[in-house]
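Researcher: Next entry in the queue.
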Amino acid sequence: MSKICEHHSDVFTSDQHTLVNIIPVFMNSVRDKPRISNQICRAIGNLCVSTQVDQGNVMSPYFTNLFKLLIDNAYRTDYDGTSADLALASFTALNALCEAAGEEVNDNLYSMLIPVLQLLENTLNSDLQTYGDKKAREY
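Model: Structure for this entry, 139 residues:
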């Protein structure tokens, strides 16, 4: 699916009806098993990049929902012990979504920056605390 989205995005975007039907399928599949979710994240990222044009992106109407979904997916814990790295796949797709977004989603993107920065801060603080605890045990 990801290669189709990368090389043949026109299959999904030539008819708005097709895109309207495929995005909910992608969104439901992101919540599926880790391996499936991993592949759908790649498909979403490839679709965002391949549909980018100077005037915007046909993915813009789905920006907010996809953004939130990919953030939630990155913090799933059920992929531990599998070969799927949902954090990497989700953040890669999120990067593509943001990079390919048209100007029409700038306000949405800006409003979502604060929660994302808070998540990053919490992650960094948590990692620093874990690192400090580990170093303290070594001594």
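Model: The beta strands are 52-53, 56-57.
Researcher: Noted, moving on.
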